[in-house]
């Protein structure tokens, strides 16, 4: 089998890249190791930057998002008893974010791909990229006991943090930058109305809290927990009690509790590999970088990579601009590092590091909170990063 761009992974980055390329007349095949149901069962991100929203509209998959997604013009920051509303719209000259779950984005992209007739091969095992430095790269994969070969011009590695793409780059080529945080997030999804109409990010001496949401009737809450905690130790009752204890009384009183639809603990980590290209293989999204979720940047950085690779590939096929291929990694990384910085900064600002910060670092953390939440310039700084920095032009 032949295609122009072989895409490994049918998560949001693989599906979005596939849709944009398909609409531009570029042939793609997506090879995914899981079933569609498994991919849709993963509960992850929920806040979309303006740039991600615009890209989904450009891909023609935004009808349901524009109907059901919730446009948020602000978020609340609660630190040391002080409550500060971050008016995103006013602070950024009109920009907002959209609350619409990653599961829904993925479902819309899957349906659009199915309707377009473009091929996605699910439940493919042992996917392997070959000849990455040669003129004719190809993938092999197994399905139903048979081995198949997919020849292509380029391979997009959209297969997440545990995927095969990054691992298939020879040792010594990639430089890894990593920061591991000494705590995790316990997340709970529940069919209860959100406690607040906007998201609440709260620092508390018992630990960080995020009150997020997926719709007017579905809430997503997160608690900072020690890395050693196991999800079985957290009954629904214990979760709600701890959440109330970390929220101001008036907010805790409004909290509607109910059975958890999902509960899980995720460790927090920052990771970037450089470069994001090896020969004809391009790493996209979580395959190349991970952020702690504090800045709501994971899915948005994946979309940012897709934006750059899509625009470059269109110019390659339409105008013969193969010189642009070498621009993908530096262009994508410039924005990735800013997203990494913001995610690291928000994590530093709002979490309790206990003994992992010395007295000096704790004072710096307090000074940062004092400065960023009281200075107009500090608030603009947080707001412009939260809604998402602009994409650079591909020329
Ligand atoms: C528990 C959790 C919570 C998160 N919460 C947030 C959040 O609140 N906010 C936020 O912004 N971000 C969050 N993120 C991050 C966000 O979900 C990711 O950044 C986003 O999913 C990246 O999309 P992706 O398509 O690059 O990778 P993925 O979504 O990981 O998709 C990769 C796809 O590749 C497939 N694949 C993997 N290996 C192979 C292989 N060898 N062969 C074929 N296919 C393969 C996988 O099955 C998967 O479908 C969270 C992530 C996790 C894990």
TrEMBL record:
Residue intervals passing through the bilayer: none
Domain of life: Bacteria
Keywords: FAD, Flavoprotein, Oxidoreductase
Gene3D superfamilies named among the record's database cross-references: D-Amino Acid Oxidase, subunit A, domain 2, FAD/NAD(P)-binding domain
Pfam family, one: FAD_binding_3
EC number(s) stated in the UniProt entry for this protein: 1.14.13.2
GO molecular function annotation: 4-hydroxybenzoate 3-monooxygenase activity
Enzyme class, broadest EC rank: oxidoreductase
Domain FAD-binding positions: 3-342
NCBIfam families in UniProt: pbenz_hydroxyl, PRK08243.1
Protein name: 4-hydroxybenzoate 3-monooxygenase
Lineage, broadest ranks: Bacteria, Pseudomonadati, Pseudomonadota, Gammaproteobacteria, Pseudomonadales
